[in-house]
């Protein structure tokens, strides 16, 4: 079967068939073994950051350069105008330009647009609409690559899947545990959503552990092709796991009520990942708060740097195949 992904945006792995994801992962493995083709020769990619980054920014810039392309990175509000996303907004407050205009102007200059825009964590309904990346998708005439949005971090999910494949030899039927971890702040759900999505799409046997107050969105879990088992004990999730992924995320029931969330959250400081089953592969997307989310001992015996490196290879595969 010939797979052509040219011209498509990469917002969320759930918009791709498992065979298409396997194709991208195979390309990433090729690119990791030998220098990739100059697939972006003469092309430019805008990288638009509403939020900070270490891995995403560097791996995209380096990957685009290795493909022969030219990255143009901008931080919204400091290196470009502040951007509005609400349709029909009366822009008499702090936002200088609408994404409707920015995306169409950028599309005249570049061949793809990468966007990083975290959730506001104030309105659950607004965050569930993933408004910034969807506004870019609506108004761009070139592919849009999600560099982490309110709901999804698909490039991270692809790197996670590549790392599992390297370490275990496959993803299908691998026993995977995704465990909530304590963190002093409410964090987005993009990473756990994308990890759960891709391992489910590729047929892993996924268990998700979290305190009762911190579920992932039910409508998201219901949409997964292979439903995960949900437990409220990390020990139960980790028993027999071949892969353990620790990540903190916010409580959707607490939107806009941070003080209440903090009280509940602070009762779960024991949810630090300080041991994994013998031989298990440990993953974390980074950045990580050492000895708060995960112990030094677990991190220092883990695959987190392979996982971080794999961002580079999967993103080159995505750019080479879609742009
Ligand atoms: N994992 C990840 O996206 O890292 P950064 O936030 O540093 O880009």
What is the topology?
Blueprint: H1 18-33, E1 44-49, H2 55-66, E2 70-75, E3 83-84, E4 97-98, H3 99-109, E5 112-116, H4 124-128, H5 131-139, E6 144-146, H6 154-168, E7 175-180, H7 190-201, E8 205-209, H8 218-223, E9 229-231, H9 234-238, E10 243-247, H10 258-266, E11 281-283, H11 296-300, H12 304-322
Helix pairs in contact: 1-12, 2-12, 3-5, 6-7, 6-12
Phosphoric acid mono(formamide)ester binds next to helix 2.
How would you characterize this protein structure?
The model has no long low-confidence stretch (mean pLDDT about 95). Strand 7, helix 7 and strand 8 form a beta-alpha-beta unit. It contains twelve helices and eleven strands. The strands form three sheets. A five-stranded parallel beta sheet has the order 9-8-7-10-11. With about 325 residues, the chain is an alpha/beta fold. It folds into two domains: about 150 residues, Aspartate/ornithine carbamoyltransferase (Rossmann fold), CATH 3.40.50; about 160 residues, Rossmann fold, CATH 3.40.50.1370. The chain binds phosphoric acid mono(formamide)ester. The site of phosphoric acid mono(formamide)ester (CP) has 9 residues, from helix 2.
Number of domains: 2
Low-confidence stretches: none
CATH class of the largest domain: Alpha Beta
Radius of gyration: 19 Å
Share of residues in helices: 25-40%
Q: What spatial order of strands do you see in the largest sheet?
A: 9-8-7-10-11
CATH architecture of the largest domain: 3-Layer(aba) Sandwich
Distance between the termini: 20 Å
- What is the β-strand count? 11
At the fourth level of CATH, the homologous superfamily of the largest domain is Aspartate/ornithine carbamoyltransferase
| Main beta sheet | 5 strands, parallel
Strand content: 5-15%
Mean pLDDT comes to 97
